[in-house]
Amino acid sequence: MSGGDTGTSSTGGLLAARASANDKRKAFRAALASDRIARLPGAFNPLTARLIQEIGFEGVYVSGAVVAADLALPDIGLTTLTEVATRAQQIARVTDLPTLVDADTGFGEPMSAARTVTVLEDAGLAGLHLEDQVNPKRCGHLDGKAVVPTDEAVRRLRAAVAARRDEDFVICARTDAAGIEGIDAAVERAKAYADAGADLIFTEALYTTADFERFRAAVDVPLLANMTEFGKSDLIDADTLESIGYDAVIFPVTTLRLAMFAAEEGLREIAAQGTQKELLYRMQHRSRLYELLQYERYNDFDSGIFNFDLSRNQ
Ligand SMILES: C[C@](O)(C(=O)O)[C@H](CC(=O)O)C(=O)O
Ligand SMILES: [Mg+2]
User: Which residue from 108, 62, 52 is spatially nearest to 85, judged by alpha carbons?
Assistant: First the structure.
């Protein structure tokens, strides 16, 4: 198709994902029910979600810590539901993979947690996780965090579950109790949260493989592991977590840490050398960026859009 024509028939997956929100929720549920572990790297922006899909992961994660850090804020409950929902929607809409979002403590009391579910459903997410920390929360891998009593966390979850309009939307309950009250107490909380209707339990800040095994043996609900760097948990690979019987694993802040490390190195080099010439081999090439953006396919709308000639670029 050429100049000026609008190729609406061939825009599938171009401006937004092909899969509907419900397709993605069903896919997430199927992945959790399968014998394989679902791997969900965090996407710090929508384009990274495209990369996560292309490389073959099973899902995308939107981290509260990353949404906060992106705004140059610490992860201490300062971000609002609107900020998180806006970013999560931007990310979820460009990928056919299910996207799980970090809803912290639900942005308030149980009624707010219920509203959070409706807003994040409307934003096209496949699921969210709600944690049992007190408000305001803090990163689960820092000391000094506190959890609400089990019955309060259960009220939060019941409200969330009752607010769900799409029964395929996944509600994950995170317990931060292991590091405060011990694993046995965390297991008891996980059971209570599953009874309250949680589809998946996020076992936050366990230390060793043995801890993950102990948790797995104690409950029969799907479990999610958090492989965040520089925290409390040993970095256990996905195959090992799968063999333990975990159903999902997130790598929440990894892509942001990689990108920020590279950006800092590059900026220091430019500050020192006055040029980025020596950095080109460490950059995503223009051609790779265009490929990821599917630039060429936009010619279906207007053949003048993609005039990038690979042969003329280094
Ligand atoms: C998973 C997490 O809730 C997040 O917001 O990504 C964080 C990750 C981190 O701070 O490394 C958490 O574990 O609390
Ligand atoms: Mg978080």
Answer: 62
